[in-house]
Amino acid sequence: MERKLKRATPRALAAAVAAAALTAGLLTATAAPGHAGAAAPGSVPDGVRALSSGWSIPWGHGWLPDGSALYAERDSFKVFKLTPSGTKTQVGTVPEAATTNGEGGLMGVAVSPTFAEDHYVYFMHTSSSDNRIVRMTLDGSSLSDYTPLVTGIRRSKYHNGGRLRFGPDGYLYATTGDAQNTSTAQNKDSLNGKILRMTADGRPAPGNPFGTLVLSYGHRNPEGLAFDPQGRLWSSELGDRSRDELNLIEAGGNYGWPLCEGTCSSPGTINPKRTWPTGQASPSGLTYADGALYMAALRGKRLWRIPVDGTGTGTPSSYYTDQYGRLRTVEAVPGANRLWLSTSNADNNGGQPDGVDKVYLVELK
Fold first, then answer.
1. Where do the domains of the chain lie, and which CATH numbers do they carry?
2. Residue 140 — pLDDT band, cuts 50, 70, 90?
């Protein structure tokens, strides 16, 4: 008698796709650098309005099951809940967070995929001695139970990385910068200049290429992570003096820094899918929505839309240039054709006072 197969859930299928991609090396960037594939169909920005104001460098963003989001302010170390109607409520601060008087502080936020059961929220932050990934519990309306999971990531005034995101495989991904020490990026024993992949308790995830937390290396200062519907991992990275990058991440891949910036001819390195002059980008947040990646630009003061065509990209287009200042974080709203987009003007680079930053709602059509 033929045995009936149990139908896999969408989440299980997504996890299987991501795991297979990592195992088989299908995350490899295969198109030529700067290849302009056919533009994928999909939505484009069509209207924007301010959802919330009075912020000071809202850096990390994580969606909660009720449709609201957690935002972390980089320099105040405060964490707020923001509802779709624009109601803003502080839920706590992150202990041991410290500023670097530059790019460090309270950075990435990721909400547990099983938040309804465990109430866990993850943060990446700078302390007085290092950068670290920690877990806290959001019980009702307050944060508690500060628990360090990964410590000893080198800190510096600049190049701290900081983005966190759970993948469709259920593992936690993190970006780390080279901490202004370029030698760390090519050193596979260092946690700096890397993209990390870990279990929910901070241990190396099964299938990692070197048996450590390291998924890929040769990064300068990656601040964006996004998964597309096929489970491929993309990352946006701030360059040095000439080129910023959009990379398609391969397990075990070497992305070239400091051997090269942008397109690279060094043997064994993987070239970016797209590059930009630093004046047009200096990218931070990255998200995927309806056929395209959206990339928030700091120095470029614009929102980039990059169509995704398999493992290639179509021609990028930009929106809102110089309208809202430095753009830090962009996230697609689950189940809706919308984005939330935050600014980063209240610091020494933006040159504006505390409280000037906003979160915008972007409608897609």
1. 44-364 (2.120.10.30)
2. confident
